[in-house]
Amino acid sequence: MITYEEVLKCLYEHEDKQYRDFHKKLLKNEAVNVIGVRMPQLRKFSKAWKGEWKTILTFPNEYYEVTFLKCAVVGMLPFEKFCEEVDGVVALLDNWATCDCFAAPCIAKHKEEFLPYIEKYLASGKEFTRRFGLVTLLHYYVEEKYLPLILESVQGACGGEYYVMMAAAWLLAEVLVKYYEAGRDFLKEGTLTKEVQNKAIQKARESYRLSAEQKSELSALKK
Fold this sequence. Notes:
Layout: H1 4-13, H2 17-27, H3 39-48, H4 53-56, H5 64-75, H6 79-90, H7 96-101, H8 111-122, H9 127-140, H10 147-157, H11 162-178, H12 180-188, H13 194-205, H14 212-219
Helix pairs in contact: 3-5, 5-6, 8-9, 9-11, 10-11, 11-12, 11-13, 13-14
């Protein structure tokens, strides 16, 4: 059984102080303690320690990297076991990076079953819990059958916290890329906030998957 001290020792052996300082600025949350372990190495640790997930979940939440490990090992669990643990790790999310990296492949084969969790997270009063709900829709649900739910969720995120609105814009940009007409018509309704609408258009226009004509049409929809 791995110990917290052993995990910290391994993490500090891969400490990159320059990366730590850079990454901490990106997180924009001074309360988050960062050791400075780069993502590829964190993913290696996660895979190596996935069998220790029960022990890892008992560790203190003192460092960004430890919280990342908790999310990563839970994300590798079978769907039924994942659902038993997901609420606990979602409650730990306190920055956009950990939130956006927390993806569970098992959801892809259990989309309908996981929808109640997403709806619960979207209704949460916590910024990064809500962001997790939106990002999970982005990762696994951008399909025609889920467009009504996605567009409703984007609408519901307007006027919310910054990282919630930016996730909504990111999600809508993916809709524009995959289902352009549906996304465009939604923008034309004019019900979104300026922040969400313009950011979604910006991100969609950065995609190589849209034509020059489509990008021009989107530009005209900026608020």
